[in-house]
Design brief:
By secondary structure, the protein is α+β, with helices and mostly antiparallel strands. 29% of the residues lie in helices and 29% in strands.
């Protein structure tokens, strides 16, 4: 079952309210996405910690409804 990019954006913004989220469907199949997430909450955190914050926001959907998500994070 594919996941809609608006749902991905909504989940990320729910966890990181100040985030600017840009999502692209890489293959046009609803399973392979790229997300660029910009948030002040990333300040002082390593890239690994930032990526974990984004993955955690997806509430276990990664690997289930969402097959692949390439993440880029930026501090605001």
């Amino acid at each position: 079952m594919a996941m809609d990019l608006k749902e991905i954006e909504s989940l990320i913004k729910e966890a990181l309210a100040d985030a600017t989220v840009e999502i692209q469907d890489l293959a046009g199949d609803g399973n392979h996405y790229s997300a660029t997430v910009t948030s002040a909450k990333f300040s002082g955190k390593s890239k690994i910690e930032q990526h974990k914050m984004v993955y955690n926001s997806l509430k276990g959907k990664m690997g289930n409804e969402l097959h692949a998500l390439a993440i880029k994070t930026k501090e605001q």
